[in-house]
Amino acid sequence: MLFKDSCNRKSNQQNLGTIKSSNLCTEIIEYTSPTEAAVCNLADIALPQYVREKDNISQLKKKILYNVKKSSDLLKTTVFNSQLDLQLLKKLRVSTRPQKAPVKATVKNLAFTTTYYAECYSIIESLYQAADLCENV
């Protein structure tokens, strides 16, 4: 159960107004209004799988961001009042699932650092692509 006062005190969306609802699992708390629907894209990474298989977690994060961007474009046209929210806030949550076998803290920190830099790289890359499109117009 969530309490409205404590959620609004801790929210990074305080500047938008009072938050009155959350998603079903209460992990996401977002501002909504009559003109704006709250939209957040979620993705989970099974971290131990990528540690064992030695797959490039940075490439996975880039794929996740690419797919989220594509789904956001689809939502803009299909979900009523979601366009404003998607354009202004661009919310995304990529998390790791808890596993039975413990993953050492250093490996976990390294994975989070890697995914953070991959996310920054993808955002910068998309800005360059948008700038190229603007130059061609």
Structural description of this entry:
This is Ribonucleotide reductase large subunit C-terminal domain-containing protein. One of its GO terms (molecular function) is ATP binding. By secondary structure, the protein is mainly alpha-helical. Helices cover about 55% and strands about 5% of the residues. It has 5 helices and 2 strands; from the N terminus they run αβαααβα. The chain has helices at about 5-10, 45-55, 55-80, 85-90, 105-135, and strands at about 40-45, 90-95. Strands 1-2 form a two-stranded parallel ribbon. Helix 3 crosses helix 5. The mean pLDDT is about 70.
What features would you highlight for this structure?
5 helices, single chain, 137 residues, mainly alpha
Tell me the β content: 5-15%
The computed structural class is mainly alpha
User: Which descriptor suits the 3D outline?
Assistant: globular
Major sheet: arrangement of strands: 1-2
Provide the domain count: 2
Characterize the main sheet: 2 strands, parallel
Which sequence of SSEs, written as H and E, runs from N to C?
Answer: HEHHHEH
> What portion of residues is helical?
40-55%
Q: How many helices does DSSP assign?
A: 5
Report the end-to-end length measured between terminal Cα atoms.
51 Å
Tally of DSSP β-strands = 2
Please tell me the overall pLDDT. Answer: 68
Low-confidence stretches: none
Report Rg: 17 Å
Write the layout of secondary structure elements.
Layout lengths: L3 H7 L30 E5 L1 H7 L3 H22 L4 H6 L3 E5 L8 H32 L1
Parallel strand pairs: 1-2
Helix pairs in contact: 3-5
Write a brief caption for the model.
The protein has a two-stranded parallel sheet. It has helices at residues 4-10, 47-53, 57-78, 83-88, 105-136, and strands spanning 41-45, 92-96. The protein is mainly alpha-helical and 137 residues long.
